[in-house]
Amino acid sequence: MSDDDTNVYSETRQRRIKIVAWVVIVSLILVGGGATVLALLFG
User: Fold this and answer.
1) In the 8-state DSSP scheme, what is residue 2?
2) Which keywords does the record carry (predicted)?
């Protein structure tokens, strides 16, 4: 495996990690916000 292959692989991997991280953050905010709204409505 050459350095170029490793470089391309790590760039793709880092982009995927960033996307996954953002999705997790957004979903946590949405779920947390939804739970807060439900707690206020039905609490």
Assistant:
1) -
2) Membrane, Transmembrane, Transmembrane helix
